[in-house]
Amino acid sequence: MPGILLGDVLPNFEAETTIGKIKFHEFLGNSWGILFSHPRDFTPVCTTELARAAKLHEEFKKRDVKMIALSIDSVEDHRKWSEDIMSFNQDKACCAMPFPIIADDKRELSVLLGMLDPDERDKDGMPLTARCVFVVGPDKRLKLSILYPATTGRNFDEILRVIDSLQLTATKKVATPVDWKTHTERLAAVTIKQKAPEKKTKREREQNFTVFLKLRDSLETHTHTHTFGGHSFREILRYMEPEKNQVKLSVISLSRTQVFPKALRMFL
């Protein structure tokens, strides 16, 4: 079945939606985007999901993320169902959904993007759309893909958390640890270069080592590069000026490209 992988550019497909015909790339513009599919309109789990997504619309908007949903139902069904969703949210039934829903009644887009759930079928035996989540960057490339079976509803608060991480790591050389949330610790990647001793090679070569240090999330992140030979780990940390940058002196992990330098081997 066709699908899309992380880093792939999403196709600039045309689709009929509750706000009219769109081209996907033009709809996104220079914003981030989230495309999420659901099995069928007027079903209990799907109603709770889109109701929650509608309530969180302002949170997505704050992050410059445009939302768009998809299922195999018609535009007419989407519009009628939208009234139920807004009523479920205790909003006036006449209020419009804050994001469009794609009508993929021929399943062409669902097949193209690999969104169908083979274990869930309609009365005619045709597969329904699974609960897919695609987060797309301003470059129109896939940044995140989550695939839930039709029987399991999504957690849109978790999706917001992941978007916060994606947007942070898109602009800074950091990684976010387990259960990370904004205003908590993050990990900074610090690259150290070593010149190998002459006696080990006929030509001078460099080795790259990445040390992950804990940073307070409110601080700016810096990448430090240092060429050393025989320096102690304490001297390396002193070079990186941890007091100035308020880096906590705790090594999370160290990755290598060739051989660990003797100065760091004793710490592993």
TrEMBL record:
Q: Which reactions appear under catalytic activity for this entry?
A: a 1,2-diacyl-sn-glycero-3-phosphocholine + H2O = a 1-acyl-sn-glycero-3-phosphocholine + a fatty acid + H(+); 1-hexadecanoyl-sn-glycero-3-phosphocholine + hexadecanoyl-CoA = 1,2-dihexadecanoyl-sn-glycero-3-phosphocholine + CoA; a 1-acyl-sn-glycero-3-phosphocholine + an acyl-CoA = a 1,2-diacyl-sn-glycero-3-phosphocholine + CoA; 1,2-dihexadecanoyl-sn-glycero-3-phosphocholine + H2O = 1-hexadecanoyl-sn-glycero-3-phosphocholine + hexadecanoate + H(+)
Please provide the Gene Ontology terms (biological process) for this protein. cell redox homeostasis
- Gene Ontology terms, cellular component aspect? cytosol; mitochondrion
Give start and end of each Thioredoxin domain. 4-168
Q: Name one GO molecular function term.
A: peroxiredoxin activity
Q: Which domain of life is it from?
A: Eukaryota
Q: Which InterPro entries match?
A: AhpC/TSA (IPR000866), PRX_1cys (IPR045020), Thioredoxin-like_sf (IPR036249), Thioredoxin_domain (IPR013766)
Instruction: Print the keywords alphabetically.
Output: Antioxidant, Oxidoreductase, Peroxidase, Redox-active center
EC number(s) per entry: 1.11.1.27, 2.3.1.23, 3.1.1.4
Q: What family does the Swiss-Prot or TrEMBL record give for this protein?
A: Belongs to the peroxiredoxin family. Prx6 subfamily.
Q: Which PANTHER family match?
A: MCG48959-RELATED (PTHR43503), PEROXIREDOXIN-6 (PTHR43503:SF4)
What is the protein's name according to its record?
A: Peroxiredoxin-6
What species is given as this protein's source?
Cyprinus carpio
Which gene is transcribed and translated to give this protein?
A: prdx6
